[in-house]
Design brief:
By secondary structure, this protein is an all-alpha fold. The protein has 15 helices and no strands. The radius of gyration is 22 Å and the shape is globular.
Length: 297
């Protein structure tokens, strides 16, 4: 009996040590990926998958690294496997990352196949704020993929869903009004409707001036810059976008394009290079990174 207990304890110790070792390797690979060292990160993820072909974290990490390299088909093979083997609590994360993978190529309808089920799940659970955020995420993918009609549909769906949340606070109502005006301003600018765009910019500013959502303030200069850029006022776009979050690759790529349209190719190239220094996996980088690579090639 003592021998059996000893062997069981040794096995448990070995399994715990192995799990800890794998966790450390995943963290190391993620760090390498965030530093732009995708090849080194992939070497670690592939090593982990050789030992455990169904390791969720390794498939997800490999898919992310491959997307950042522009190897989208290979990335999606890993992301599909990540969705397949993900524990229930991680499956939404894997599905969102698959949607982002399609956003890198501007394939919004394919992204919707992974975002819409998440939206439907939130609606079914009466989690209307999360449904609104998912709808807005998909709307933005449609917008930056050039499908303005579907973008408007999903922004409106997100706004309406969020307002169904039981007992929203005044601040929560203001947040969703700000987001709705923000979205409508960008849509109008993309359609070349200057008056409509400026009306919604003013409405967004009025909501922000209530002071109920001060954390949204950094998104206003981005809105001003976005609208100015798509209405052809590149000087104003640069002025506003320089006040926005300089860690956001989408803002950086807008700045690059505004400088390029203004004839300043040196500044444009500098900003395109800054975009490629960002190594996270999300919609803003999906919109920015492929364009920056193309411009700098």
């Amino acid at each position: 009996m003592k021998i059996v207990k000893t062997l069981a304890a040794l096995l448990l110790f070995y399994l715990c040590a192995l799990a800890q070792s794998n966790d450390d390797l995943v963290k190391q690979a993620r760090k390498l990926n965030s530093e732009g060292q995708q090849d080194q990160a992939l070497a670690i993820f592939n090593k982990l998958l050789q030992a455990d072909p169904n390791m969720y974290e390794a498939h997800l990490g490999a898919g992310i690294a491959l997307d950042l390299q522009g190897k989208y088909d290979e990335a999606r093979r890993h992301l599909a496997q990540a969705i397949e083997v993900a524990p229930p609590e991680s499956k939404p994360q894997a599905m969102r990352n698959m949607a982002f993978s399609y956003a890198f190529e501007g394939k919004a309808d394919e992204a919707a196949k992974f975002e819409q089920p998440l939206y439907d799940q939130h609606i079914a659970k009466n989690n209307f704020f999360s449904a609104g955020e998912t709808a807005n995420e998909l709307a933005r993918i449609y917008l930056e993929s050039g499908d303005l009609d579907n973008a408007q549909k999903w922004y409106q769906r997100g706004h309406e869903a969020a307002l169904k949340q039981a007992n929203p606070t005044p601040a929560q109502k203001d947040l969703w009004e700000f987001r709705w005006e923000h979205a409508q301003a960008r849509l109008a600018a993309r359609r070349g409707n200057k008056g409509e765009a400026q009306k919604h910019v003013a409405a967004a500013k009025a909501v922000l001036d209530k002071g109920t959502n001060s954390e949204q303030a950094p998104f206003f200069p981005y809105l001003e810059g976005y609208v100015a850029y798509y209405l052809g006022d590149y000087k104003s776009a640069i002025t506003s976008l320089q006040k926005a979050d300089q860690r956001d690759p989408f803002i950086l790529v807008l700045l690059a394009q505004a400088y390029e349209k203004s004839g300043d190719k040196t500044q444009a190239a500098d900003y395109y290079r800054k975009v490629l220094g960002v190594n996270f996996h999300g919609p803003t980088n999906a919109f920015a990174r492929p364009l920056a690579k193309k411009k700098l090639s």
